[in-house]
Design brief:
Layout (H helix, E strand, L loop, with lengths): L8 H13 L11 E5 L2 E4 L4 E4 L2 H4 L8 H13 L10 H12 L7 E5 L2 H16 L3 E5 L8 H5 L19 E5 L19 H13 L4 E7 L14 H11 L3 E5 L23 E4 L1 H4 L5 E5 L1 H7 L15 H16 L2 H22 L3 E7 L2 E9 L4 E2 L1 H13 L2 E2 L2 E2 L2 E4 L7 H19 L27
Parallel strand pairs: 3-14, 5-6, 5-7, 7-8, 8-9
Antiparallel strand pairs: 1-2, 2-3, 4-10, 9-10, 11-12, 12-13, 12-16, 15-16
The structure holds pyridoxal-5'-phosphate (PLP).
C-alpha cells in the first residue's frame, strides 16, 4: 500500500503559500523546514529528517554548530557589511587560511558571493592573463547558473533551454568526461590509456577557435554523475592545458573542504591547477565563495577584464568570520581524515545494496560523497529516472532527505555524522529502495524537481 504523508494545517498552508509566491524548484512533498541541529533538519510539524546533502552541500559541520552559532552572534554585534573598497580582519584571515592549505603558489584570493560568480572570475582571469578567448569545459560538467558559467555547463536537463545567444560563443564543451562506468569511447580502463582525453584533444582542435584561454573542470564531476577520474586524467588534462598555452581551472564547489577525504579533492591527484574555485562547503551556508590563483596570474590580469572582481558583498565581514571559523574547525577536528575513514565504512555498507537490488547499477564516490546510479538494466546501464525519484520519495517517508537528480542519488551528509548514524541512514535507504522496487509510489513526476532533471519533452527524456 502507498504510504501517505500527514501534514498539519499550518504545514499545508505554508506549502500552498510557497507555491503561490516563490518561483522555485520543489521536490514532492514540498516540505517546509524551520530548524536544524547536527545531521538533522526539522520540518514545521516537528518531524526530524537526516539531512543527507548537508543543505546544498554547504553545512559540513551540520546545522547550528554551537561554535559557529557563537561566531554568528559575536560578529552580528561587531560588523556585518562594509564598503568593498576597504577590507576587514576576517576576510584577510580567511584568505590566509585558505591559501595556507593549498599547494604551490596558489596565494591570491578573489572573493565572490556564489560558485557561479567564482567560476566567472576564474574565466576572466584566464582570458585576461593569456589574452586568448575560448574556455573549454568537460561534458557532464556543471559550473553554475549565471550566463557565462551556464555556457560551460553541460549537464543535461533544461539548463540551456531557450537561452540561445545568451550563451557565450567562445566556449566549447569539448572534453569528454572520464566516465569509466559509461565510457564515452567504449573502452575499458586501464587498457584504454585514457582514450577519452586523446579524442578530446582532437575535438579541441576542431571545435575551438584555437585561442584557448582556459580549461575548466570539476576535480570530481558530481552533478554529472559522480565521475571520479582515473589517476592519470587530471595530470594529463593539465598537460593539455599547457600544450595549448592555457590555464587549468579546477572547480571545487561541491568538494572542498574535506568532503572527499582530502581538504581539496584535486589533492587525490598529482596535479597543480593554475586557478581553483571554492563555494558551498567553504561558505558554511552564508554565500561566501571565491577564486584562488597565483600572485603572477593575479598581477598579469590586474586591471583587465573587470579584475579584481568586486561587487557589493564579496568578502563581507559577517560571512568571512563565519566561514573562517568553519574552516578552522574542519582543520582542527581533522574532518577530511574523518571523511576518508567514514567514507570507507559507508562504502562498505552501500556496496552490498548493489548486490541486493538490480536497480543499483553502481556506487561511486570518494569519502563522504557517494552516489547511487539507478538503472533499468544492469547490462545496458540505462538510467532509471522514475526509480530514482521513487527511492528519494520513499526515503522522505523513512526520515531521510536527499537529492536525486534523474538517476543520480547523492549521499553527502555533514562531515560530523557518526558511524552509528551512517548505519541507521543506510538501513532507512534500504527500506526506501525496497518500497520503490515494490512500485511505490505509483505516480511520480520528477520533472518539477530541478532544472537538471527537467526535460521539456518527456517523450524524449534528457539524453544520458
Ligand atoms: C560544481 C559546481 N560548480 C559551481 C556551482 C555553482 O554554485 P552556485 O550555485 O553557488 O552559483 C555548482 C552548484 O551546484 C556546482 O555544483
Amino acid at each position: 500500500m502507498d504510504k501517505t504523508f500527514k501534514f498539519s494545517n499550518r504545514h499545508v498552508d505554508l506549502m500552498q503559500r510557497d507555491a503561490k509566491t516563490l518561483f522555485g524548484w520543489r521536490y514532492d512533498p514540498p516540505l517546509i523546514f524551520e530548524r536544524g541541529r547536527g545531521v538533522f533538519i526539522t520540518d514545521v510539524d516537528g518531524n526530524d529528517y537526516y539531512d543527507l546533502t548537508a543543505g546544498m552541500m554547504c553545512m559540513v559541520l551540520g546545522h547550528s554548530h554551537p561554535e559557529l552559532t557563537e561566531t554568528i552572534r559575536e560578529q552580528a554585534e561587531l560588523l556585518v557589511h562594509e564598503s568593498s573598497w576597504y577590507s576587514n580582519p576576517w576576510a584577510i584571515e580567511f584568505a590566509e587560511l585558505i591559501t595556507s592549505t593549498l599547494p604551490g603558489n596558489l596565494k591570491m584570493v578573489n572573493f565572490a558571493v556564489t560558485g557561479s560568480e567564482a567560476n566567472e572570475i576564474a574565466m576572466r582571469m584566464a582570458v585576461a592573463t593569456t589574452r586568448k578567448h575560448d574556455i573549454v569545459s568537460v561534458l557532464r560538467g556543471l559550473h553554475g547558473g549565471s550566463l557565462a558559467a551556464e555556457s560551460v555547463t553541460s549537464v543535461g536537463g533544461e539548463r540551456k533551454g531557450g537561452l540561445g545567444p545568451f550563451m557565450i560563443p567562445a566556449r566549447s564543451n569539448a572534453i569528454l568526461a572520464p566516465f569509466c562506468y559509461r565510457c564515452p569511447v567504449n573502452l575499458t580502463y586501464p587498457g584504454c590509456d585514457i582514450g577519452c582525453l586523446k579524442l578530446s584533444e582532437d575535438m579541441m582542435e576542431h571545435m575551438t577557435s584555437k585561442s584557448v584561454a582556459g580549461i575548466i573542470a570539476e576535480s570530481i564531476l558530481v552533478p554529472g554523475g559522480m565521475i571520479v577520474p582515473p589517476e592519470e586524467w587530471l595530470p594529463r588534462l593539465k598537460q593539455v592545458a599547457e600544450d595549448w598555452g592555457s590555464l587549468l581551472i579546477l572547480d571545487e564547489a561541491q568538494l572542498a573542504p574535506g568532503r572527499t577525504g582530502k581538504l581539496w579533492a584535486f589533492e587525490h591527484y598529482d596535479v597543480l591547477p593554475d586557478i581553483v574555485t571554492f563555494a558551498k562547503g567553504m561558505s558554511a551556508g552564508l554565500a561566501i565563495c571565491g577564486t584562488v590563483t597565483t600572485p603572477e596570474i593575479a598581477e598579469a590580469c590586474r586591471g583587465d577584464a573587470g579584475l579584481p572582481w568586486s561587487g557589493t558583498y564579496p568578502g563581507d565581514p559577517f560571512p568571512s568570520a563565519v566561514a573562517l571559523k568553519n574552516l578552522q574547525i574542519v582543520l582542527r577536528d581533522r574532518l577530511a581524515e574523518r571523511a576518508d575513514e567514514l567514507g570507507r565504512k559507508l562504502r562498505a555498507r552501500l556496496d552490498p545494496l548493489k548486490e541486493k537490488f538490480d536497480c543499483i547499477g553502481d556506487v561511486r564516490g570518494k569519502g563522504l560523497y557517494q552516489m547511487l546510479d539507478i538503472v533499468q538494466d544492469r547490462k545496458t546501464k540505462k538510467p532509471d529516472y522514475a526509480m530514482g525519484e521513487r527511492i528519494r520519495y520513499n526515503a522522505v517517508h523513512e526520515g531521510v532527505v536527499t537529492i536525486c537528480v534523474k538517476n543520480y542519488m547523492r549521499i553527502a551528509p555533514p562531515l560530523i555524522i557518526t558511524e552509528a548514524e551512517l548505519d541507521d541512514v543506510v538501513g532507512r535507504l534500504e527500506t526506501a529502495i525496497q518500497r520503490a522496487v515494490d512500485g511505490y509510489p505509483k505516480d511520480i513526476d520528477f520533472t518539477k524537481s530541478s532544472s537538471l532533471a527537467a526535460s521539456r519533452d518527456m517523450r524524449r527524456p534528457a539524453a544520458e
